[in-house]
Amino acid sequence: MATPKQPFFNFNILILFLFLEPLQVHSVCRNFCNNIPIKYPFGVDDGCGAPQFRHMLNCTTDLFFITPSGNYKVQSIDYNKKSMVIFDPAMSTCSILQPHHDFVMTDIQSVTIPPSPDTIFVLLNCSIDSPVLNHYKSLCFNFSGHSCDELYGSCTAFKLFHLLSNSTPPCCFTSYNTVKFMSMNILDCSHYTSVYNVDSLKGVGPLDWLYGIKLSYSVPDTGCDRCVKTGGMCGFDVETEGMVCICSASNNSTIQCGAGIGMNTGTSLRQSSLLLESFMVIVLIFHLTLL
Ligand SMILES: *[C@@H]1O[C@H](CO)[C@@H](O)[C@H](O)[C@H]1NC(C)=O
Ligand SMILES: *[C@@H]1O[C@H](CO)[C@@H](O)[C@H](O)[C@H]1NC(C)=O
Ligand SMILES: *[C@@H]1O[C@H](CO)[C@@H](O)[C@H](O)[C@H]1NC(C)=O
Ligand SMILES: *[C@@H]1O[C@H](CO)[C@@H](O)[C@H](O)[C@H]1NC(C)=O
Ligand SMILES: *[C@@H]1O[C@H](CO)[C@@H](O)[C@H](O)[C@H]1NC(C)=O
């Protein structure tokens, strides 16, 4: 009469098999980094995602976007709107004043994942010799009716400029291109900040602005949909950078994880584990009837 334990034992094995198979694919390509989902075209393991975005993300304690000017913390990724919000921990915000520092992207990043048009850079405390106050004045614009005075007046951090100079030091609301073509040293403004989703900030005070940089990316069309629909994850060959559909930890296919095309050990693995699962259910039912 020691049998009551046996059904539970089999039930555990059943659960194990149900979870085993997805784990096999995920051990090749992590699909989460600290609560942020990692999907095509991104990857945090080499050979995962699209090669155009290779070496751009680093998943250590958090998810970081890697650029020549530093690693920026990724705050969110919107896969529907194809955008990613990053934060430069060294930039100033309404509450922290930090000396300027360049924001530099690689040439590939400037093309594949540039800052979105609704992200603006705010150059603060510019010297009177700054190009944006002279020859390149036209690069500065008024955004949603906001002025520098408002920034210097309402943010704890920026009030310091008022106090120290007893006037309103010049500032400039500009686009990424200005920062891209002129370094912060050339721009000659002591501090900078950046704000995103500016289209919705009309009448909203600087304390409630969204500080960070929103990047918008485009997804290369390499037929990844087909691979995902058949249960795979898109990746690439680390040597040739040609597309690979990762079906399981032990085998990759060229296009999809279906029968007949490419190598598809992944599918047969899935089928055999399904068979095993059905067998386990039968065994379980059999044991329960015996009780
Ligand atoms: C499958 O592709 C991934 C990504 O390129 C690679 O890391 C992995 O080693 C490949 N696995 C096999 C069995 O070829
Ligand atoms: C990823 O981040 C870790 C810790 O910040 C760092 O040691 C490592 O060099 C980074 N890797 C890349 C490719 O930047
Ligand atoms: C503002 O810029 C000037 C140089 O143009 C600099 O001397 C001054 O320290 C800056 N103010 C602050 C608060 O950093
Ligand atoms: C921005 O607005 C202010 C006053 O509202 C005006 O004096 C200034 O010329 C405007 N600047 C630009 C670049 O339109
Ligand atoms: C992958 O699958 C193909 C075809 O099913 C097979 O020839 C090859 O040996 C498999 N490779 C590995 C590493 O299992």
Automatic annotation (TrEMBL):
Pfam families: GUB_WAK_bind, WAK_assoc. It is found in: Membrane. It comes from the Eukaryota. The keyword Transmembrane helix does not apply. The keyword Signal applies. GO terms for cellular component: membrane. GO terms for molecular function: polysaccharide binding; protein serine/threonine kinase activity. Its EC number is 2.7.11.1. It is a single-pass membrane protein. It catalyses: L-seryl-[protein] + ATP = O-phospho-L-seryl-[protein] + ADP + H(+); L-threonyl-[protein] + ATP = O-phospho-L-threonyl-[protein] + ADP + H(+). Keywords: Glycoprotein, Signal. Residues 1-27 form the signal peptide. Residues 212-248 form the Wall-associated receptor kinase C-terminal domain. It is an enzyme of class 2 (transferase). Residues 29-87 form the Wall-associated receptor kinase galacturonan-binding domain. This is non-specific serine/threonine protein kinase. The lineage of its organism: Eukaryota, Viridiplantae, Streptophyta, Embryophyta, Tracheophyta.
